[in-house]
Amino acid sequence: MRPGFIVVVCGLMSLALSPSHGQDAGASGEQAFNNSCRTCHTVKDGDNRVGPNLHNVVGRKAGSVANFPYSEAMKSSDIVWDESALLRFIEDPEAVVSGNGMKPYTGVRSAEDRARIVAFLKSPGK
């Protein structure tokens, strides 16, 4: 075999197996959610943990899940969770709602991971 052919084949295999190409957005979004959010949150309706459940969070008013003890800052924030608000909050919760009660969580630095998490939260049934 020619060396150039081997390089091309290896490059194509690498692309096919990389997370951005080999997995669908839902799977990579779920993985990003699990890595950054699942310690405290679920997407199962009614399943509040350390943090409130995030089932149908898009379009919901912040601090409004029943039977969850939100901070006063979150309850009075007047935020309705849309894609933009979620992206900003996931990046730096304290900058968006000071006193939010999510310490020691400080946010997700990767813009790609934040976008994946929001896409996952926006997906049907989440």
Briefly summarize what is shown:
This protein has about 130 residues and is an all-alpha fold.
Structure in words:
The chain is mainly alpha-helical. Helix content is 48%, strand content 0%. The chain has 7 helices and no strands. The relative contact order is 0.15. The model is unreliable at 1-23 (pLDDT under 50). Residues 1-22 form the signal peptide. InterPro entries: Cyt_c-like_dom, Cyt_c-like_dom_sf, Cyt_c_1A/1B.
Mean pLDDT over all positions? 84
Helix content: 40-55%
Q: What share of the residues does DSSP label as strand, in percent? A: under 5%
Which term fits the overall shape? globular
How would you name the oligomeric state of the polypeptide chains in this document?
Answer: single chain
Number of strands: 0
| Main sheet overview | none
Given as residue ranges, the uncertain stretches (5+ residues, pLDDT < 50) are: 1-23
Structure class: mainly alpha
Q: What would you report as the Rg, rounded to the nearest angstrom?
A: 18 Å
Protein name: Cytochrome c
Domain Cytochrome c: 24-125
Pfam family, one: Cytochrome_CBB3
Organism: Bradyrhizobium elkanii
